[in-house]
Design goal:
Layout lengths: L2 H15 L2 H5 L8 H9 L15 E5 H18 L2 E5 L6 H9 L4 E4 L2 H9 L5 E3 L6 H13 L4 E4 L2 H13 L4 E6 L13 H12 L3 E8 L2 H4 L4 H24 L6 E4 L8 H4 L3 E2 L9 H4 L17 E12 L2 E4 L3 H4 L13 E3 L6 E4 L11 E5 L3 H5 L4 E6 L2 E7 L10
The protein binds pyridoxal-5'-phosphate (PLP).
Pyridoxal-5'-phosphate binds next to helix 10.
Length: 411
């Protein structure tokens, strides 16, 4: 093929794929990333549009996000259950502070680094929901407790009780410790009933520990489809946690907290007897929660709205009813199946840096067009970005750093 033939072919293809509107936009240079960074540092978001942003990136729909926060805060106030929001979903100090401002009694964290981040940012009553194991984590936990006496840990093993007590003794402090009880998820949790009571007594007997209550998180209950099925699963999984707390009380122990629960069971947990709710996903919601069913019988679970998307760009358009976007597994970590405003689109064949979108007869997507995807798993998707771009409609109004992402925490 001659040079002339190639350029003619390219010209024809681009004139087919790139509509006049898109070409006209090249008269104005977008903000480059260094300019966006400089503007962020000055908190000057004027003029930055979704077209300027380097894709893939995370977009927060601020009105929907705020609606979610207020709805959960309102629910907890009106039903008399405390919220201790879990930060593993967003890993952002800005968001955690907003949750606390709306009444969250503290923040739950899944890693010791998240605990250090949140407590270091001045957030009180941080609960580490995974028991500290190994020298590094135990020492970091007790060092944090020495700086911030409101920080709390859990344990599901008598060895952890001994080790944390020993490390706390070395620092001459007392660490608040809860028993993490088995509640359906095999990843962690001491057996409920008498064994749970025995572990609580062991904590209570230690000079450098203070018994803080019990925890039981049922990840199976949270995602069970159908409200009544979910309620029954919660009763089965979390009921024994509450019974163990009652055994502790009968044995004369003070049980300040019975903590657990999730976004999926937020309107069930109080009835079962939890005193506080560790919900996390409600701030953004993901496709994993979209169809677990509402209390009113609707198949769609829309108590909270999907307020987070991954913004992508169409980078290839060579087939009818199909495009390639610049977001694949590196952008989401778990394939999604939902495109914002286009439920007819199927996300197929996700590779490392690209995804294929296909549809039957909806409007054709164009080369260079922006497409927003809902996340299938919040924790993993938010972990691969440095910041949230926060929008009100098409206007960028804020940028929140994701300081708790795992890679950033290997300090
Ligand atoms: C211990 C613990 N509590 C609470 C949550 C929050 O659950 P959700 O995001 O479904 O509200 C999680 C999520 O994995 C968790 O691991």
């Amino acid at each position: 093929m001659t040079k002339h033939a190639i350029s003619r072919r390219v010209m024809l293809a681009s004139s087919f794929a790139a509509p006049a509107l898109l070409r006209a936009s090249f008269t104005k240079k977008p903000f480059f990333y260094s300019e966006i960074e400089a503007k962020i540092a000055r908190r000057d978001f004027r003029g930055i549009t979704k077209e300027d942003l380097p894709t893939p990136c995370l977009i927060v729909d601020k009105p929907l996000f705020e609606q979610n926060l207020k709805r959960m805060a309102g629910h907890c106030k009106s039903t008399g259950i405390d919220l201790r929001a879990h930060c593993k979903i967003h890993k952002s100090v800005d968001i955690a502070k907003r949750q606390v401002a709306l009444g969250s009694v503290g923040i739950c964290c899944a890693t010791i680094a998240e605990c250090e981040l949140m407590s270091g940012a001045g957030i009180k009553n941080v609960l580490y929901t995974v028991q500290p194991a190994g020298k590094n984590k135990i020492w970091r936990a007790v060092t944090l407790a020495a700086k911030d006496p409101t920080f709390m840990v859990v344990a599901d093993d008598p060895l952890t009780v001994d080790w944390v007590d020993e490390a706390a003794a070395a620092l001459k402090i007392r660490v608040t410790m809860l028993v993490d009880l088995f509640s359906g998820l095999t990843r962690a949790g001491h057996p409920t009933g008498t064994p749970g009571l025995e572990l609580a007594k062991k904590i209570d007997s230690k000079k450098h520990l203070k018994f803080g209550g019990v925890m039981g998180y049922s990840g199976y209950a949270s995602h069970t489809k159908g409200f009544e099925e979910r309620r029954q699963r919660s009763i089965m999984d979390v009921g024994p946690v509450v019974e163990t707390a009652n055994l502790c009380k009968k044995a004369g122990l003070n049980v300040p907290l019975i903590t657990g629960g999730s976004t999926g069971t937020y309107n069930i947990d109080k009835e079962i007897g939890l005193t506080e709710l560790q919900a996390g996903s409600y701030v953004f919601m993901d496709t994993g929660y979209m169809y677990i069913g509402s209390k009113n019988g609707d198949k769609r679970y829309d108590d909270f709205q999907t307020s987070l998307t991954v913004l992508t760009t169409v980078v290839s358009k060579n087939h009818p009813h199909q495009v390639t976007i610049d977001a694949g597994n590196k952008a989401m970590l778990r394939p999604t199946d939902q495109v914002k405003d286009r439920p007819d689109i199927i996300v197929e064949n996700q590779g490392a840096e690209y995804g294929i979108l296909k549809w039957k007869d909806g409007e054709e997507l164009k080369l260079g067009q922006k497409v927003e995807l809902y996340c299938s798993n919040l924790d993993m998707s938010t972990n691969v970005y440095d910041r949230y771009f926060v929008f009100e409609g098409e206007r960028l109004v804020d940028v929140w750093p994701i300081m708790g992402r795992a890679g950033a925490l290997q300090r």
